[in-house]
Amino acid sequence: MLIVFDIGNTTTEVGLFQGKKLLADWKIKSDREKTADEYGFMLSGLLAHGRFSAQKIKGAIISSVVPPLTPVFQAACEKFFRVKPLVVGPGIKTGIPILYENPAEVGSDRIVVACAAFEKYGGPCLVVDFGTATTFDVISERGEYLGGAIAPGIQISAEALYLRTARLPRIEVRKPKSAIGRTTVSSMQSGLYFGYVGLVRNIISQISSELASRPKVIATGGLAGLLSGDIPEIDHHQPDLVLQGLRLIYQKNKTAEKKS
Fold first, then answer.
1. CA distances from 22 to 63, 115, 180, 240 (A)
2. Short-list 31, 29, 5, 27, CA closest to 17
3. Which of 6, 109, 129, 137 is catalytic?
């Protein structure tokens, strides 16, 4: 089995694969204060609860946008699963040429979803990843990573309203019944939800206008399910895109190892 980790700013997504089949996936909090032992015991508990044997894990791969947590998960894998994980970064084969002015600036999670989207849907395509930040990643018809856009996530926007105003409350982000709010909470939900839908649709439109042909638009990330129903430009909702991308990158590197 292969265990994969997508370490994000808010949550870490964990996936367990047998070949191409995703056996299970979990989300845990990305906590910089936790030690490798604490994460190791947590992961062991998740595996045991799903009746999976840690001894059957033969490989691991990590994508991380939280540098302090990368060595923590590396150490947990080595101690608890007896495997040395691959880490997505310089020197890792992805099969995706990066045309960013400075390729080192591109977050590993963005390259991972680009790899998975191009493999599954071909190009050109545009991945909208609804996470802590909402990222827009563009892959050309030839499978090149062209760049994209980064916007504050809708949860960040909601939290900013609460923290930077004197009287607005902290609210749950959800679709309101009407755009015309009749309470403070429903007015905030309207502004956040419909404003964010407009933001995403406009960025998709602007990016599409700069490409030779309309890209296939794929939504992923924790809040994709909430928003994608009101964004008709989205062609596919693929919740496990980053996990599938990590599996693909692991396979590419193991195949390259065997050939060398």
1. 17, 17, 42, 9
2. 5
3. 109
Q: Model-level pTM?
A: 0.91
Structure tokens that stand for 254 in this block: 């193991």
31 has catalytic annotation: no
Residue 39 near residue 81 (C-beta atoms within 8 A)? no
pLDDT tens readout for residues 173-204: 999 999 999 999 999 999 999 999 999 999 99
Q: Which of 61, 87, 113 is the last residue of a domain?
A: 87
Instruction: Give the integer Cα–Cα distance in Å for 51 and 99.
Output: 43
- The tokens describing 132, both together, are 């802590």
**Which domain range does residue 145 map to?**
103-245
Q: How far apart are CA 217 and CA 207, in angstroms?
A: 11
Pair (176, 67) in one structural domain? no
Report the b/e string of 58-97 with b at 16+ CB within 10 A: ebbbbbbbbeebbebbbbbbeebbebebbbbeeebebebe
